[in-house]
Amino acid sequence: MPCGMGGEAGTGRGRGLAGPARAYWPAPPGAARCVTACGARCGRRGCARRGSGSGRRRCPSGTWPSGDTGTGRTREEEPGPAGREETAPAPKKRRLAGGERYVPPPRKLNPGVSFGAEHFAETSYYFEGGLRKVRPYYFDFRTYCKGRWVGRSLLHVFGTEFRAQPLSYYRAAARAGRLRLNEEPVRDLDIVLKNNDFLRNTVHRHEPPVTAQPIRILAEDEEVVVVDKPSSLPVHPCGRFRHNTVIFILGKEHGLRELHTLHRLDRMTSGVLMFAKTAAVSKRIDEQVRQRQLEKEYVCRVVGEFPEHEVVCEEPILVVSYKVGVCRVDAKGKPCQTLFQRLSYNGSSSVVRCLPRTGRTHQIRVHLQFLGHPILNDPIYNMEAWGPDRGKGGRIGKTDEELLKALVEEHRSKQSLEVLGIGEEDLNSAGESKDSACPLNSDTNLETLDKDKELSLCGNQDGQAGEKGWEEKDPLCVECRTSRRDPSPKELVMFLHALRYKGADFEYCSSMPEWAMEDWQE
């Protein structure tokens, strides 16, 4: 942290100076910054003052300017042992004022998003009832202090921005040693956060099940991997999904790692999905995307008899909720265009070819709903919550808040929130008010948890697919005490499929799904 800055000039009352006032001499332009005894830059140029010896005097902090050894020569000019490279000394901790908390400098993080063996080894899969399931596992959520958190207590931040759990949960987690600040256990949630504080929260993580249908490799060479993605799988980790994602399954089961996502499919959409193996290939294909040289073709089954002629929909689309994943047509939305052509009609539903010219979230699904032909089994856009017209022509008759509440209540009544990829904890919006509703017994002595013992996972441990082994509940985990109905494999399939992906020098196709056959009957 810079010392001698942010306080009154020449008083020594800056953030890092604790001591008598010192005067600074102006430095010549381009002079190196001095390095204080604590190893931080003091922010004063050079501290070069006329005096004896080399014509310079030491900085008031007691060390020489950066790169200066006090002999009139820089470190690069100082003679050293032959054949040995000089290494800079490790920075020392800044001298703290009485009662001041030390915050270590931020660590350099890997800017890329890649997953390796240590991530894949966090847990394992098992298969049951046509579903791919993930054994619960312990996971660290990590973050640096956000600017808006500085000066606020941990308790206040948890109560206002992390409301999926009641405050009593975070108090219990702190007592159990699962909250760490700068890698030190948090003992007091009233501690005030500072810039560069590093927070780690260990949780017992449960993931929603997905279909057991395997990911099929359509093509692979030294540049790309193309797969046929099953419905219900997110492309990459997001929300409650981590191991039950295409990226993790390809890494764990196919040895395909460090892939670059070229485009995305909605979690409930199946079909052609393409990855680049190198950054160079990714950049080349991204350029084709920007030049609009890519063509995507989808097929879907919709409600009713779709018009025989080609239909073009250009209604703008607005995101209503990122958390639940809901959009609607609105004049304030982003411009987009989709072309539709009917392929077949079986007397009650139609198979439609879709050519999106833009790539907005849920574009095909929202446009089909607006046209009065929502996808037959769409768990969002073909629900009663949209009103008697199911959103046709943009007629909803509800505010966005009322619409979201109605959608959630409809799925809650059917015990199908998992189909949306959300849980009850994702919908909690109360902070302190939920404290009294916490299922944890406040008299429970969580200090008896053996913090040095490897925490046990609840769920199967014997590796047998679907076979129930011994089970140990995590004392803090609400999910461990909650009984949920598993979705059926049928509920995890939506009738929207990415059939073809074509670029300037490639074209990849998948086979037509069974539900898209002309003679298919529900």
CATH architecture of the domain at 295-415 and 489-522: 2-Layer Sandwich
What is the highest CATH level, the class of the domain at 295-415 and 489-522?
Answer: Alpha Beta
Largest beta sheet, briefly? Answer: 10 strands, mixed
- Please tally the helical runs, counting DSSP H or I stretches of 4 or more residues: 8
Q: Separation of termini?
A: 66 Å
Global outline: globular
Question: Class by helix and strand content?
Answer: alpha+beta
Strand content: 15-25%
Give Rg in angstroms.
30 Å
Helix content: 10-25%
Mean pLDDT: 78
Instruction: Spell out the helices and strands N to C.
Output: EEHEEEHHEEEEEEHEEHEEEEEEHHHEE
Q: Give the name of the CATH superfamily of the domain at 295-415 and 489-522.
A: Pseudouridine synthase
Q: Looking at CATH, which topology of the domain at 295-415 and 489-522 would you report?
A: Pseudouridine synthase
Number of strands: 21
Q: Low-confidence stretches at least 5 residues in length (pLDDT < 50)?
A: 1-89, 429-470
GO molecular function: pseudouridine synthase activity; RNA binding
GO biological process, one term: enzyme-directed rRNA pseudouridine synthesis
Keywords: Isomerase, mRNA processing, Phosphoprotein
Pfam family, one: PseudoU_synth_2
Explain what you see.
It catalyses: a uridine in mRNA = a pseudouridine in mRNA. By secondary structure, the protein is an alpha+beta fold. Among the domains are: 1-80, no CATH class; 295-415 and 489-522, Pseudouridine synthase, CATH 3.30.2350.10. It has helices spanning 117-120, 154-161, 167-175, 246-253, 279-290, 363-370, 400-413, 424-427; strands spanning 33-35, 41-45, 125-128, 131-134, 137-144, 179-181, 184-185, 198-205, 210-211, 216-220, 224-229, 260-261, 270-276, 295-303, 311-313, 317-321, 326-329, 338-345, 349-356, 496-502, 507-509. The strands form five sheets. Strands 10, 11, 12, 13, 14, 15, 18, 19, 20 and 21 form a ten-stranded mixed beta sheet that branches. Strands 5-8-6-7 form a four-stranded antiparallel beta sheet.
